Amino acid sequence: MSARYADHPLQSGEQAPNIVLDAISSEGKIALDDFHGRSPLLIGLFRGLMCPFCRRHVATMAQLGPALREKGIESLAVVNTPVERARFYFRYHPIPGLLAASDPGRASHRAFGLPLLEFTENETDWPYKVGMDVVKTMRVDRPGELPEPMDPATAADLLNEKDGYELTEADQQVRIPGHMQLIGHFLLDREGVVRWSFTEVEEKPWNVCQALDPEELMSAASQVAH
Question: Sorted alphabetically, which Pfam families does this protein's record hold (predicted)?
Fold first, then answer.
């Protein structure tokens, strides 16, 4: 693992760090340097599988995989879930073609500059702190899954109940009370340089728990593939 941690989300034109993580979808390790000079890479850095939004984001990445591979672009999903717990989950919820890795220490998130967000009562200093008064005004909309747009915490509870996802001791081990890891997608070219990103770390917290725009991603992918 690279010792260099970014103090801001990596932007277009910045070099991504090398990351070495435990593979979920196979034995052994996965390193970003494995792709260096070989193919562009879309890397998704997510919270643990206990996050229902992240489970959906991972599935979306996998669905976009064939179209990305047609452009010569590989995909890697990184989750905070411990590797054995993640392997158990995907054994019963398989996603064909998914390349995934485990990072329970969230070192990859720090290396890409994704902050650990602290929840407060009413103090907001985005993206490091957010007041619950602000959180309650945020809305996540998932037509067909949620009865109406609602705040992320209420939506997460409903989706976890819908999915029948039960927290295990391994899930609890990576939880940080009063905090939430912000997440993001980064599209790297063959040399490991960031060319596009979509993160929860925007000027205002309206991207939290939201899915990326597939059309925007594929447009960026077309540029990277050339």
Answer: AhpC-TSA
**Minimal CA–CA distance to 41: which of 221, 223, 213?**
221
Whether pLDDT at 184 is above 50: yes
List, in sequence order, every beta strand (DSSP E) within the chain.
20-23, 29-31, 41-45, 74-79, 100-102, 116-120, 129-131, 179-181, 184-188, 194-199
- Structural domains of the chain ordered from first start: 20-114+181-225 (3.40.30.10)
- Average pLDDT over every residue of 215-226: 92
Residue 1 pLDDT > 90: no
Q: What is the pTM of this model?
A: 0.94
**What amino acid is encoded at 172 in this protein?**
Q
Angstrom distance (rounded) from CA 124 to CA 182: 15
CB 75 within 8 A of CB 61: yes
Q: Which residues does residue 172 pair with via DSSP β-bridges, in sequence order?
A: none
